[in-house]
């Protein structure tokens, strides 16, 4: 199943999905996490593979790096120590 990040993260429960493809990115890591979580909601009994379709040399490269940077910073703040 292929979803947009917003549709995958707002009230959509994918309890029968085994593979989910996202063909877009959001600048907000929380949007990505929420969309992924919708495939793992109550009632899902199987493993779910989630893939992000990214294009090299496009804005996807920039967005992915920014999202990873934000996730790293958030993890450091929540853990209370800086990665070296």
Automatic annotation (TrEMBL):
The organism's taxonomy opens as:
Eukaryota, Viridiplantae, Streptophyta, Embryophyta, Tracheophyta
What keywords sit in the KW lines? Answer: ATP-binding, Helicase, Hydrolase, Nucleotide-binding
Organism for this UniProt entry: Stylosanthes scabra
Q: What is this protein called?
A: Helicase C-terminal domain-containing protein
Gene3D superfamilies per record: P-loop containing nucleotide triphosphate hydrolases (3.40.50.300)
Q: Which residues form the Helicase C-terminal domain?
A: 3-43
The residue range of the signal peptide is none
Pfam families, per this entry? Helicase_C
Query: Per its UniProt entry, which superkingdom is the organism in?
Result: Eukaryota
Q: Where is the chain membrane-spanning?
A: none
InterPro entries attached to this UniProt entry: Helicase_C-like, P-loop_NTPase, SNF2/RAD54-like_C
